[in-house]
Amino acid sequence: MAAEVLFVDDNKLILQASVDLFRSQGIDLLTATNAAEALELFRHHEIAVVVSDNRMPGMSGLDFLSELRRLSPDTVKVLISAYVDLATALAAINNSEVFRYLLKPWKQQEILDVVQEGLRRYQTVQAMRREDEAVLRSLAQTIELKDPNTKGHCDRVAVYALLIAEAMGLPKETLRQIKYGSWLHDCGKIGISEVILNGSGRLNEDEFKTMKLHTDWGADLAEKARLSEVAKNIIRHHHEKFDGTGYPLGLKGEAIPLEARIVAVADIYDALTTDRSYRGRFLESEAREMVRSMSGAALDPSILEVFLQVVPAGPLPSSEEVLGEVTPREADGKRPNLTLVRAQA
């Protein structure tokens, strides 16, 4: 059964206009004129995104979406209101897990973008929950398509993180979860505009505030997908800094989960050695000195020392090689791709 989109509004003209708009984009909508009708549809359909008006006869949109939190927790919820009401907006976010709160009259492109983003979010959660390696890696690569400068980034971060974790003697299952968390550490960027991701200069204050949300958005996806604590910690905390000046929580030192401290080293080093929209890449020797200078500030000193000992000077192995899942000979077909991406970056 394919996941569908549902619009709920007691105004039939609005529903018909919505059907026409989305049909022009190749998306067929389910519609309901009240919450009771909508709840009945959930018995027979897999609904990925629901867009509901707030003021309707009978159950309000807010109460309806609160009920969906129990009935269909994965459904992405969008609440629409004709009135600016901060209390309703906060209740929607806190009690109903509403993804977006929009005001009437909404703009066509605005509602199209929100629903498309909601569909991507729903599909991401479903893929993550299956914990299928091919799907997870493909998902990471799809996220990277939003920012062409990060091609191969998730794979390389996984390899660097696995080299560190293996040298530290962490258990095999922890290594596997570090790989998944590394692949998905930027999954929250599906909610960030390409305008911000691909800007030619450094982010301004407002853009950076938006960018910082990707850790919480990603962690929310990971929670819904019921990923392991190791993977969730990486997604939420890979931008924390050892001195407590990072985000999202400003954790300090060993209060930052170990796996997130490991991935932070891998993430920063790979960012330094690849081209970005606002600067060129640094030579590996320069990048090593730059991360060394971050010891005790952004990065955990002990983990950094392990990294500097194990980071290869030549081609990167694959994550499968690091985990001993394939031999170097078997991985020969994969390694040139990684090397090529690294050389181009």
From TrEMBL:
Q: Which residues form the HD-GYP domain?
A: 128-323
The record's section on InterPro entries has: CheY-like_superfamily (IPR011006), Cyclic_di-GMP/3'3'-cGAMP_PDE (IPR052020), HD/PDEase_dom (IPR003607), HD_GYP_dom (IPR037522), HDIG_dom (IPR006675), Sig_transdc_resp-reg_receiver (IPR001789)
Entry superkingdom? Bacteria
Keywords from UniProt, A to Z, are: Phosphoprotein
Q: Alphabetically, which GO biological process terms does the record hold?
A: phosphorelay signal transduction system
Q: Which Pfam families match?
A: HD_5, Response_reg
Q: Which residues in this protein are found as 4-aspartylphosphate?
A: D53
Q: Which residues form the Response regulatory domain?
A: 4-119
Q: Could you tell me which residues belong to the region Disordered?
A: 324-345
Give the protein's recorded name: Two-component system response regulator
